[in-house]
Design goal:
The structure holds two protein chains of two kinds.
Chain A (H helix, E strand, L loop, with lengths): L1 H7 L5 E4 L8 H9 L5 E4 L4 H9 L3 E6 L11 H7 L8 E4 L2 H13 L3 E4 L7 H4 L4 E4 L6 E6 L5 E9 L5 E2 L7 H7 L2 E9 L2 H5 L5 E3 L6 E4 L17 H12 L1 H12 L5 H6 L4 H5 L14
Parallel strand pairs in A: 1-2, 1-8, 2-3, 3-4, 8-10, 10-12
Antiparallel strand pairs in A: 5-7, 6-7, 8-9, 9-11
Helix pairs in contact in A: 2-3, 3-4, 5-7, 9-10
Chain B lengths: L1 H7 L6 E4 L3 H11 L6 E4 L3 E2 L21 E2 L2 H10 L5 E4 L3 E2 L5 E2 L2 E2 L7 E2 L6 H7 L2 E5 L20 E2 L2 E2 L10 E5 L3 E5 L6 E6 L5 H6 L6 E8 L5 H11 L9
Parallel strand pairs in B: 1-2, 1-5, 5-10, 10-13, 15-16
Antiparallel strand pairs in B: 3-4, 6-7, 8-9, 11-12, 13-14, 14-15
Helix pairs in contact in B: 1-2, 2-6
The chains are: A alpha/beta, B alpha/beta.
Amino acid sequence: MRDAIARFVHDGDTVVIEGFTHLICFAAGHEIIRQGRRDLTLCRLTPDLIYDQMIAAGCARKLVFSWAGNPGVGSLHAFRRAVEGKGGPPLEIEEYSHFGMVARFAAGAARLPFWPMRNYMGTDLPAANPRIRHVTCPYTGAALATVPALNPDVTIIHAQRADALGNTQLWGLVGVQKEAAFASAHVIVVVEELVEEAVIRSDPNRTAVPAMIVDAVVVEPWGAHPSYAQGYYDRDNDFYVAWEAISRDPDALERYLDDCVRGVSDRAAYLEKHPGLTARLKAAARFCSGVNYGF
Amino acid sequence: MMASVAARELADGEVVFVGIGLPNLACNLARATHAPRLVLIYESGAVGAAPERLPVSIGDPALVTGSLMVCGMVDVFQLLLQNGRVEVGFLGGAQVDRYGNINTTVIGPYARPTVRLPGSGGAAEIAIHAQRTLVVSKLSPRAFPERVDFITSPGHRSGGVPRTQLGMPGAGPVKVITDKAVLEADEATGELVLAALYPGVDPSEVQAGVGWPLGSRPRLGRIDPPTATDLRLLRHVLDPKRLHLKA
């Protein structure tokens, strides 16, 4: 992880750590904080706790997003302090809806300059974000909203498994990771398990990201905690609840970063700081029976 | 009470785009009672979800286990929502105005907010595309101003222009379910008016929680309290940890 971040994430880069609730790579975000990256443009549909931590740590210059809350709990307070001008590093924002962000990744992945959609009429979002524009359909004459392509410098995705070359399989909620990866100049894949190429070949429909677009494969079990990995471990909802009080108090947040992020060398050391965590969150077995790929 | 009233609005077999919090509870209550074939779609990509525990978030792993389909989010918004497949969308928000516009973005000016809220998520496009939407929000003058500070999710009239002229495919917020009454959009003007009262509630209490002179249907409906089955399911099966139900 240390090498992958050092090599592919630079000061001033546009960085995406995707994953919708599921498979959010906290381990990569923590390593970026440890390496003291600055002036990043951080993009994600839902900034979640990981970008709240990176904003608090001073990594971010700008945030591009569509829903900035702590799901089912409350606020991301480092984000709020920055945007409400109540302390912390200044933060520029560029805001869309989920459909807008998803469409930006789709355009980026297809190497198109923008993506058309029937959206945003009657809303104040285009007034708040002048990058949401309109185009007249050349076939029907209808007005369509457009969003610009998003092509990050680096996208980091977490997955259940990959082979050594980076052929990557994920299951459960797959969010927008595939499009974010294809849209990006560089891709880092972080996995729970490294498997043989034969395992990938036995179930090719499950491959979301092929090795041809992957620059680095990092094996980091429990790297998504407190997010989750379907079939491996559950979401740590208790930690998401606890974040409300931690992030509300800048001193408590700083202590958290010192203790659990800057104070550990890697994910293994992070896990040692949380005894009992793996036993508490380990997933139960719910296997599917598989399909016949024969011919 | 609000969860129970919201659940009754859902017909068996309908396709519902489920939001976080109370709507989630209402949809799962409907599925456990009169609407077992309700198709729950979560913006996270779970379609036909059958969660074995109340999902804490809309990305809960229990939404995947045993669902009919899991798709990527490009598919959720393009193939399901923009395609017109969603019959009912649930929305909530910090502010709901006279025409059912909803604000989940900022209190105060956008560039200098007093309170920064989470933003749209999928709400803007749900408000535009769902065949009809149901809004769930507790009454108070702060929550129901005459005009919202920011239109995140458009209702029946935005900047004075009716939604049909703005080209929105869906019918918009047909009902607003509150903690005292149900408001409905007047078919001619798009304005929210009082349509039905909860037991023991006087219309003046509803007006006290709304920041504009509230009109009324000619004949007010009466909302029955939750059934014993609803209460048992809500308190002991669906939300025993009181994640969404308050005392």
